[in-house]
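Researcher: Here's a chain I'd like modeled. Treat it as a single chain, no partners, no ligands.
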Amino acid sequence: MPEVVIVGAGPTGLACGIELKKLGIGAVLIEKGCLTNSLYNYPTNMTFFTTPELLEIGGIPMTSLNEKPNRTEALKYYRRVAEYYQLDIRQYERVLRMDGADGAFTVHSMDRFGKAQTHAAKKIILAMGYYDIPNKLHIPGGDMDKVIHYYREPHPYYGLEVAVIGAKNSAAIAALELFWTGAKVTLIHRGDRISDSVKYWIKPNIENRIKSGEVKAYFQSSVKAVYADSIDIETPQGIVQVKNDFVFAMTGYRPDFEFMAALGITLDEATQKPRTNPETLESEVKGIYLAGVVVAGVHTNEIFIENGRFHGAAIAASIAGAR
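Model: Modeled as a single isolated chain. Structure tokens:
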């Protein structure tokens, strides 16, 4: 029986497993998708904003052909780390619920064959990220298949009318790549301009495409309805109906607050941040620890791989001390 069950096998979950293993504490990582599933679902041609050493875990150096690593290099690196440390990772297994208490938890899950699994553990670490739950539009037609929350690559949309909702990094990059590939792009954003947080080499590019009219933009506007071949946009001048084939809703993502609440973890009403010990990251439910972006509540831009990777050492030290 492993002493610890870690929910999530992203970079933070891997870091937790590594730090526990260094201290001789057995752990099993349960991941509903593939290894580093969120990174796998990033845009195919994505380049990280950070440098390789800031993505490293477990003391294993990360190399990159360029100053900043890309998605493919990151996936290769984390596969190598998982293999080096021989972590026990159960891929394509979804955690359904947990019961028990500190020292005697039972984790109930279902594997990819639909078979129920149970895992007993003394401690639990929730490192499940936030990328799997998109912020929905909640408008008529917002659940249509043509509404996409994960931009991967532009080729399938060549020659089509596409709308991109948002004006941060993911929206700006999607709009540019779609435009470069021959899509007819309309960008809609409730703010009055492209976000100042957009990467410095991307921001002037998208702004110039908008200024030239190559990308049509509606600022201080929002999509009010989605139809099979068009969308309604509420603008300062009134409702505008625009021809449309696909909508990319780059409206962000959120942690699974409902899952944490079901475990008895209470959230701050304003920020949705779970209450944790800032030094150990143990939640108010004794024996359950939180790692990575789930600690940040709705402020998902506060924790990245670069700082979430250090959570593992703090949690492992606390668990070892509790022994």
